[in-house]
Amino acid sequence: xxxxxxxxxxxxxxxxxxxxxxxxxxxxxxxxxxxxxxxxxxxxxxxxxxxxxxxxxxxxxxxxxxxxxxxxxxxxxxxxxxxxxxxxxxxxxxxxxxxxxxxxxxxxxxxxxxxxxxxxxxxxxxxxxxxxxxxxxxxxxxxxxxxxxxxxxxxxxxxxxxxxxxxxxxxxxxxxxxxxxxxxxxxxxxxxxxxx
Length: 196
Hints:
This protein has 196 residues and is α+β, with helices and mostly antiparallel strands. It has two domains: 14-73, Beta Barrel (Thrombin, subunit H); 77-171, Up-down Bundle (Methane Monooxygenase Hydroxylase, Chain G, domain 1). Helices cover 43% and strands 21% of the residues. The strands form two sheets. It has a five-stranded antiparallel beta sheet. A two-stranded antiparallel ribbon has the order 1-2. β4 (28-40) and β5 form a beta hairpin.
């Protein structure tokens, strides 16, 4: 039971099942593999065991603390579509100094909320091929995009890279030009010219 100003309120009981994909705010999408009991300080505690394949990590969350931890089931396809649509909007105000905005973006990323992730993607995405990003802005953008793509990928049964590409296509984010890429055919022509 949760308490608000001394009034006891029933807490929202989330029902999780083995094999279900879930979102843990600071880690992204993981798979609930089992429920186990552990004895801690003489008390038996039920734990949800969640595997995060991408991070090669296993997390145990006490069943009684799932709501407090922010653990949640995947969003619906409709909610994910709404988040992506909101990421198409105009970027938020940039009047705040970067350090404060970066801290806010970090908080949004770690919330696990698709709408807050979309806010970060919206504010930091490149609007044209000529746009540039600082290293820290690029890292925040990529983390937010990856978190959105993890959920999108599971909902649409695709891999993470395809999900990221699909989201950026929907948003109209311009593709980057790889200045280090060299056409292999032009390399062979250069070598032939040098040997003659």
